[in-house]
């Protein structure tokens, strides 16, 4: 029985290593692979595939929104698992913020990049920055703010008030 357990663990480790060492894909295939990994909740693999897709999709706001959202999900997962490396955490917050800023540059009239920026800043502890970004998202919503935006306005406003 012990031999079976060792073989099972070894096979699982080899499969994980093979996925991490997968050869780079072209942009379209890598983006689809990222979306598949996201659907499976494998945020690390999704980020790896998004990195491969970056050269092809770097000019698309939707790519950067996906990159920012995926980075936040990966960070949430790592924090829930007890991640304490401040440099890693700060770097991931920075990556998410940069992705949302890039999306905002590519789609300056869209609310979604600003909403992502507000979520990132609030999670990072920047209440004033979160409120500023949420207000910018609201200004771009054309008077029809989504429930998600309304929630973020409330969360960011409360955080800014008590900060």
Care to describe what's here?
By secondary structure, the chain is an all-alpha fold. It is 80% helix and 0% strand. Helix 4 (61-80) packs antiparallel against helix 5 (86-106) and helix 5 (86-106) runs antiparallel to helix 6 (112-124). The longest helix is centred in the middle third of the chain and has 21 residues, at 86-106.
- Count the beta strands: 0
How confident overall, as mean pLDDT? 87
Broad structural category: mainly alpha
The H/E string reads: HHHHHHHH
Strand percentage lies at under 5%
Main beta sheet strand tally, sense and closure? none
CA-atom Rg in angstroms: 18 Å
Which outline best applies?
Answer: globular
Give the N-to-C terminal Cα separation.
57 Å
Helix content: over 70%
Short structural summary:
The chain is 80% helix and 0% strand.
Helices and strands in order, then pairings?
Elements: H1 2-20, H2 27-39, H3 43-57, H4 61-80, H5 86-106, H6 112-124, H7 127-140, H8 147-162
Distinctive features:
single chain, 163 residues, mainly alpha, 8 helices, 80% helix, globular, disordered N terminus
């Amino acid at each position: 029985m012990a031999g079976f357990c060792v073989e099972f663990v070894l096979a699982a480790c080899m499969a994980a290593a093979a996925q991490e060492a997968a050869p780079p894909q072209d942009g379209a295939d890598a983006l689809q692979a990222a979306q598949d990994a996201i659907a499976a909740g494998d945020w690390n693999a999704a980020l790896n595939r998004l990195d491969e897709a970056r050269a092809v999709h770097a000019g698309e706001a939707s790519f950067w929104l996906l990159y920012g959202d995926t980075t936040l999900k990966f960070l949430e997962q790592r924090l829930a698992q007890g991640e304490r490396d401040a440099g890693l955490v700060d770097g991931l917050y920075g990556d998410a913020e940069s992705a949302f800023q890039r999306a905002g540059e590519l789609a300056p009239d869209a609310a979604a990049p600003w909403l992502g920026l507000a979520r990132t800043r609030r999670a990072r502890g920047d209440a004033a920055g979160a409120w500023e970004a949420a207000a910018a998202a609201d200004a771009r919503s054309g008077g029809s703010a989504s429930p998600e935006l309304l929630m973020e306005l409330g969360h960011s406003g409360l955080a800014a008030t008590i900060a």
